[in-house]
Amino acid sequence: MKEVDREAYLTRYGERYERFGYDPRTLGWGAGGRQELRFAALAGIAGERREGSVLDVGCGFADLEPWLEQAGWRGSYTGVDIVPVLLEEARRQRPGVEVHLCDVTSEDPPGGPFDYVFASGVFNARLEGEGNEDYLRAALARLFSLARVGVAIDFMTTLVDFQHPGAWHTDPAWALREAQDLTRRVTLRHDYLPYEFCLYLYRDAEIEHSRYARSPGGARSPHE
Q1: Does domain 3-204 fall into CATH 3.30.420.10?
Q2: How far is CA 88 from CA 52, 96, 135, 140, 215, in A?
């Protein structure tokens, strides 16, 4: 991230924190449980499996950590962010939580390697120092390199009626193409909120027909 964009990022979240304190609005999220819907979408990459180490990039208040615990997730949690005041609040809210000041695009996060890398809301600001697509392309590759099992990332979608001038909406078709340059196994979810989508990138790129092809009754497809 260019310095001009880093400064804008720090200023934006610092001002929101002064206004709202420990509140989803500080992170740019609205009320009504939308943050929980995002968490559920991210965790969906694991399917029924509820175990494995998680790196939460742009963790904010580390609210994902108790959500995973309540969802029955078994494994370690590490959060990283570049905004010190958010991490300080995370430690107050959850003493002992593993969070670090770290920009994973240029630094190795402590505590790795990680099974899953999650990133929620970190790519939604329009950048001034460099093109959003160039930054996103490099960030996707970097996050993918940190995961042993897979990466789950959410974005604001271009398939909306209104786009805020200061926000960046990512074209789902573009994101899918970029993800497929990294792995053949990709899932794009555009079903949980009307203005966002989530992308799963799996390290295991092998597509096995027997994994997925089932008849309605649960038997294997005759075409296997």
Answers
A1: no
A2: 26, 12, 27, 27, 51
CB 35 within 8 A of CB 63: yes
- Reduced to 3 states (helix: H, G, I; strand: E, B; else coil), residue 1 is coil
Alpha helices by DSSP H, 21-162: 34-43, 64-70, 84-93, 132-145
Strand ranges of the sheet holding 114-119, from the earlier edge strand across to the other edge: 99-101, 77-81, 54-57, 114-119, 147-156, 196-202, 186-189
Phi-psi region at 52: left, alpha or beta (left = phi > 0; alpha = psi -120 to 50): left
Contact (Cβ atoms closer than 8 angstroms) between residue 45 and residue 119: no
Looking up tokens 């929620």, which residue turns up?
A: 120
What's the rounded Cα separation, in Å, for the pair 185 and 140?
14
Task: Verify cis geometry, omega within 30 degrees of 0, for the bond prior to 113.
Answer: yes
Report which residue type is found at 5. Answer: D
Cβ-Cβ contacts under 8 Å for 205 (sequence gap 6 or more): 183, 184, 185
Predicted confidence (pLDDT) per residue in 127-165, tens digit: 998 899 999 999 999 999 999 999 999 999 999 999 988
pLDDT in tens, 40-68: 999 999 998 889 999 999 999 999 999 99
